[in-house]
Amino acid sequence: MSRWPEFAPGTLAETTHRWLAFSGGPDSVCLLHQLIQLEASENLTVVHVDHGLDAQSSQRARHAVELAQALGIDCRLERLDRSELDRTGGPEAAARHARYARLQSLMSADDYLLTAHHADDQIETMLLRLLRGSGARGLSGMQSLRPLKPGWLARPLLQWSQQHIHDYLQQHQLTAIDDSTNYDCSLDRNFLRHRVLPLIAKRWPGYRHSLLQSIELMAAAGRTLEAQAESDFEQLLHMQADEITLEIEPWLKLEPVYAFEVIRHWCRTTSIEPPPAARLQEFFEQCQSAATDRQPTLDWQPASLRRWSDALWLDRTPKPPANWQLHGMLDDKHELDIELPHDIYRFRYEQMLAGRVRFRKNGNIT
């Protein structure tokens, strides 16, 4: 093993149980084989998640199970339902979010979820985030170990290159799935991998080392910026009616880069994915120019940020109940009872409010 890079520190720490996200591709086959060689397959469950987004998905799932069995390990197969694939952000993001949600549902407290992300994945992630206008935290790339409720997400191969993995498979005569969807250049990551990066490599052969070095520098800068954001957040924090709000005027006096990082910190403390940088910029400018009686609002999935009075309010967007429909006729009071999965509400149509929907629960309008 001495000719190969080491596993990222801390990714194989003692834990109650390990779950390996196993696609059957070269990266996950490499990782599974090494875990077996290191006698780290005890308390390990190998899981393949079939997202069902393309015609070959089921075939790949069967092949993944066979590959794991050939290495002496059983592979648990999890199939996603179409309803689990929230399309927000495109098919790549939808499949990724649904896959992680299913894997997290299998984990217990302090379990480790192992994925086979490597250094080339790290570079692609950093460049994609750069093109989307991410800040220092986003440009610092993927962490080798980070919290993932209810346990941890670990990436042991983050110091390995794709070439290392290819060479490892050759040396140990290992086979893996060649997923045809990885060549679909309508997907952003594939376009970057197959069209853009080969051109960069021709012009700058050492770009991988340079970008990985930049990722480390951005990680250090991100930690500094996050510490400042936490301090600013504590100073701006104000409680109103048992809700956390931020004082608007001091927030608007911050440099935009710090103001945006305060919002990102606020989102992270409430386990909300922060809004895109461009949307934050637009909201910041609206708050600067809006009259005091206006209420600029930034809506994104899964939350909304709004200015009201002299404060900023962050609200999580409630998920609508699944699989329900409204049937019936409004009574002479323009009202109708609605039975939802967990309660009964009264629907009122108020014509003077341009069709605004209001719900009455237990006699109170909600």
Task: Jot down its keywords.
single chain, 11 helices, disordered C terminus, globular, alpha/beta, six-stranded mixed sheet, five-stranded antiparallel sheet, 366 residues
Number of strands: 15
Ends distance: 63 Å
Element-level helix/strand string = EHEHEHEHHEEHHHEEHHHEEEEEEE
Give the low-confidence spans. 350-366
- Strand arrangement within the widest β-sheet reads 3-2-1-4-6-5
Helix content: 40-55%
Mean pLDDT over the full residue set: 86
- Rg is 24 Å
Distinct helical segment count: 11
Strand content: 15-25%
Biggest sheet architecture: 6 strands, mixed
Q: What class do helices, strands and sheet pairing give?
A: alpha/beta
Overall shape: it is: globular
Provide a descriptive summary of the structure in words.
- With 366 residues, this protein is α/β, with parallel strands linked by helices.
- The chain is globular and about 70 Å long.
- The protein contains 11 helices and 15 strands.
- Helix 8 packs across helix 10.
- Strand 7 and strand 8 form a beta hairpin.
